[in-house]
Amino acid sequence: MTSALPPIDDHDASPEVRAIYDDIRKTRDTDYVGIFWRVLANDPAGLKRTWEGLKQVMAPGMLDPLVKEMLYLAVSITNGCDYCSHSHGAAAKAKGMTPAMFAELMAIVGMANQTNKLADGYRVPVDERFKNLF
Amino acid sequence: MTSALPPIDDHDASPEVRAIYDDIRKTRDTDYVGIFWRVLANDPAGLKRTWEGLKQVMAPGMLDPLVKEMLYLAVSITNGCDYCSHSHGAAAKAKGMTPAMFAELMAIVGMANQTNKLADGYRVPVDERFKNLF
Amino acid sequence: MTSALPPIDDHDASPEVRAIYDDIRKTRDTDYVGIFWRVLANDPAGLKRTWEGLKQVMAPGMLDPLVKEMLYLAVSITNGCDYCSHSHGAAAKAKGMTPAMFAELMAIVGMANQTNKLADGYRVPVDERFKNLF
Amino acid sequence: MTSALPPIDDHDASPEVRAIYDDIRKTRDTDYVGIFWRVLANDPAGLKRTWEGLKQVMAPGMLDPLVKEMLYLAVSITNGCDYCSHSHGAAAKAKGMTPAMFAELMAIVGMANQTNKLADGYRVPVDERFKNLF
Amino acid sequence: MTSALPPIDDHDASPEVRAIYDDIRKTRDTDYVGIFWRVLANDPAGLKRTWEGLKQVMAPGMLDPLVKEMLYLAVSITNGCDYCSHSHGAAAKAKGMTPAMFAELMAIVGMANQTNKLADGYRVPVDERFKNLF
Amino acid sequence: MTSALPPIDDHDASPEVRAIYDDIRKTRDTDYVGIFWRVLANDPAGLKRTWEGLKQVMAPGMLDPLVKEMLYLAVSITNGCDYCSHSHGAAAKAKGMTPAMFAELMAIVGMANQTNKLADGYRVPVDERFKNLF
């Protein structure tokens, strides 16, 4: 598969793009910058916005970093995004996801996709007691 | 909204349906049986299969019960299932999800939906190092 | 709910739109024209194209008319289209779909949505023997 | 494509997994077990639940077995599931789907996907007469 | 419909949230702040990130502001997002979208959704000449 | 990838299919007929209906031809349709889409997909002032 715009190597990157690459490396404690970021680098403002947004969203918070990656993975699988399922699957594994945990995640993704359509297709009205969340 | 088939009250339920209702009450330690199950009860085999499958999938395992509910919720929101977002939102709250945790979940769901489409639209090829999960 | 463009009544319809309304009545042997068509009538060329396409696709062919309506319904439920699930549910019922048949359809829709995501999430490669259809 | 978890061959399968494989062979009157089941076998409880659910849903009922396969196929195509479109396409063909029947199915899938979005985008309110299904 | 978290009025907003509300008013030359932003304000960092991202993406660029709104609207309709179809429909109208232009947009959305599924379902391989975009 | 039905070459085409191929060539001022049309030709009525519908929808109207192609592309990317993203990406480029314009389109597609889910997941009620479009 050829990307719609070419991935940009470090030596072809502008200083602002290079700074984002370096921040990715530092934040993730790796020397590898994924092809996603290198393609997005064709739009430097988009690269910066997306990376900084992702970094903020995935930073330590109320939820455990592994839980965050697994939520990301479950959404990516539901959307059928091949790239993101691969990259966030790898990230979840690096943070401790075992095959058994992945199988549990998959079982939930499968079950939710089934009951989502059952609820929609049977036109089930929302129970009064579920109407207010917070 | 009127459901596609009428919800079945306890007194109209067959013994096999009633047994499922009782198992839902016992498993969840509540006297409330949601409309979803009461509509599904028009197909007793489907009710039994779906309830027992869900019970098995959401039972204690490698993942924390709250994490499981949040995964279910994230998938349901991604699919735009109004009923399931309400019912699993309520279930996650009952298991300890706070507004701040919900906001973190939502930020991940939003970000994943964004990057899923960026990866697809830019046709980003999967990095070699992400190709094998386990 | 207010439609994005107003539904057009018979007495406000241009001759070309009125001719489509009449063809809908004649083809379906009813005096009722659904709101979908009346809203689409704001774009007379779109109304004509869509109605004639639908009439052609749903005409008697290799598949039974009820099977055709059930396929339409299954797709509409999968897409979460509330209007089409209602209108094609009604059409399928008028052609003989019973509650038991609807429940079987729903069970298939639910199961397919589940296994679709299991196959995607587990990245199952297509079996050699399934690669050629015809 | 490499599956997320490795497919499990017969000789590596536990007795409970082997029993499911045998039931697949017997139920389908074939000696072939698809890769989907072999990957799912990494989660023996999930394999059993999914296979037994699928067997129940696709068993002879009110709807013709070929109609059931075509419903499964139409949903799988709508969801863009490559694996399931291949496996259920092959299953439908084995049960009698001809190229002409497949073309009719495809025409319905295409038309439904079009009108689903027209109804949503034009925000067409549901006709009173369509509000109750059964 | 009750939002999952309550909308935050101006007088209950923290200074940082109030500053975003003011920037929305100034950027859009209006005194109205939509409910979307007021609900998102429960997560001040998310409000800031989302608003600043949206402002950047929708700012004058290579594409005409009306074209940008119409692209946003077409995506929102395809995703079945009721809120965004309403808000971006209103924004597109404010920027000059007429009923005839909306009808053209809808015709394209409908046609694309149809051919998307025909291409997927018929498993059409990508033509060599389409493989490289830029 | 092998298509579900074989593409039909000019010399194997019936006169009615050949006439459509010729109209595609003439309308687009090219001698190339894409594989999509050649596969669809297995269903001559479907080929004629789809081509004539597409030709009508994409004909000069209120919207600029390039804007039309970009709307088609944005929808195709949102739906994850690989074939259509390639073919309409190529068509948009041929009509003048530059890499910078494509990057703006992608930024909008990504942002819309994000806010669509935020609005759904937070269950944001539609503002009164957005309820009527035209």
Characteristic key phrases:
homohexamer; mainly alpha; 134 residues; 2 domains; AhpD-like
Name the overall outline of chain A: elongated
Rg of chain A is 19 Å
> Share of helix among residues of chain A?
55-70%
Q: How many distinct helices of chain A? A: 6
Textual characterization of the structure:
The structure is a homohexamer of 134-residue chains. With 134 residues, chain A is mainly α. Chain A has two domains: 1-59, AhpD-like (Up-down Bundle), CATH 1.20.1290.10; 62-134, Up-down Bundle (AhpD-like). In chain A, 63% of the residues lie in helices and 0% in strands. Chain A contains six helices and no strands. In chain A, helix 1 packs parallel to helix 3, helix 4 runs antiparallel to helix 5 (82-94) and helix 4 packs across helix 6. Chain A is elongated, with a radius of gyration of 19 Å. Chains A and B meet through helix 2, helix 3, helix 4, helix 5 and helix 6 of A and helix 2, helix 3, helix 4, helix 5 and helix 6 of B.
List the helices and strands and how they pair.
6 copies of one chain form a homohexamer.
Chain A: H1 15-28, H2 35-40, H3 44-58, H4 65-78, H5 82-94, H6 99-121
Structure in a nutshell:
Chain A is mainly alpha-helical.
